[in-house]
Amino acid sequence: MALHAAHLIERIGRLVQAEEQSGGLPPVQWDVLRYLARANRFSRSPAVVAAYLGSTRGTVSQTLIALEAKGYVERRPSERDRRSVDLALTERGRAVLAADPLLTLADDIAATAGKGATELARALERVLTAVVERNGRKAFGLCRSCRHFGEGSGASPELRHRCGLLGLDLSDADAGQICAESARPDAA
């Protein structure tokens, strides 16, 4: 049954990719837009995008050039290191994501799995963790699930949380986004 599930996941992925291409964007461009929409402000550099996607920097660079030309993504000087750049979605990029074919897949999952969607997501998270570990990849977990996540310094009411690794206060929005530095609570 496990192999059957793996085949189903692969087939669903291919069908979603076909739907993406019919919408005018290649799958890798959708992947970059989705990642940027979900990544926190510390995790939006071209190198981190490449690591998240398991892709080469060259492929991501070409993809970013195409997305910039379409007006979906912009590069900004990094706040932390002026020699590098951070990526940001434009209003146009956010508007494109409103028609993301993955949203239809999420609706299908909700309609067929119902309350079991949470259990399905947890099982897939465990599978993803195994694949990430087997391949020596970064985890890219949610900020709030990281062992470095804690209470903010109290300097600002909107920055209620803190990243102990980076030594920076975080908003609720930051806490719910993907972080390249995320470490599982049980990681040493």
Automatic annotation (TrEMBL):
- Its source organism is Microvirga thermotolerans
The alphabetized UniProt keywords are: DNA-binding, Transcription, Transcription regulation
Q: Where is the signal peptide?
A: none
Listed name of the protein: MarR family transcriptional regulator
**InterPro entries per the record?**
HTH_MarR-typ (IPR000835), MarR/SlyA-like (IPR039422), Tscrpt_reg_MarR-type_CS (IPR023187), WH-like_DNA-bd_sf (IPR036388), WH_DNA-bd_sf (IPR036390)
GO molecular function terms attached to this record? DNA binding; DNA-binding transcription factor activity
Q: Which GO BP terms, alphabetically?
A: response to stress
Q: Which domain of life is it from?
A: Bacteria
Annotated SUPFAM superfamilies: Winged helix' DNA-binding domain
Domain HTH marR-type: start-end pairs: 1-129
Enumerate the Pfam families for this protein.
MarR_2
